[in-house]
Write the structure tokens for this entry.
Amino acid sequence: MTDNIENSQHEQDQTQAQNAVFGYYGYVNPTTKIVGPLMSFFGKPNDMTHFVALTKEQYDYWYGRHCRVGSDGALEEYTPPAPPLKPQAQEAMQKVQQQASMVSAMGETFGPKMRAYVQSLRAILDGSNTTSTALPDMPDDVTT
């Protein structure tokens, strides 16, 4: 019985010690003020220059979200910009090429909607379309 009490007290002491030195921090990019990644560990970073200390509640709330340090020093929502259009178009064109192989193997051809889609992607890729801000939607049926 005495051993159980001593073990319980030892566990409580360990928990209190861990809570006393366990910290939550976010790395802050000095140029953009974007925060990430968030970290939790014992102690604190040796150089706090680019870190912001967080409470457990802040850490739990912001973990997995995009945030930055606002002008008032508080964390705020941050929506990262969309990736540039040309790399998105390159990725979409790779999918088109895979579709083309499958359609050809089935003895079919791309329909007018799919051909228009491919032309739109080509215009983005070759730089002749400089006004689009998003990719066109790929047709559901590539043969129509």
Summary: Residues 22-77 form one domain. The radius of gyration is 27 Å. Residues 33 and 71 are 9 Å apart (CA to CA). The mean pLDDT is 86.
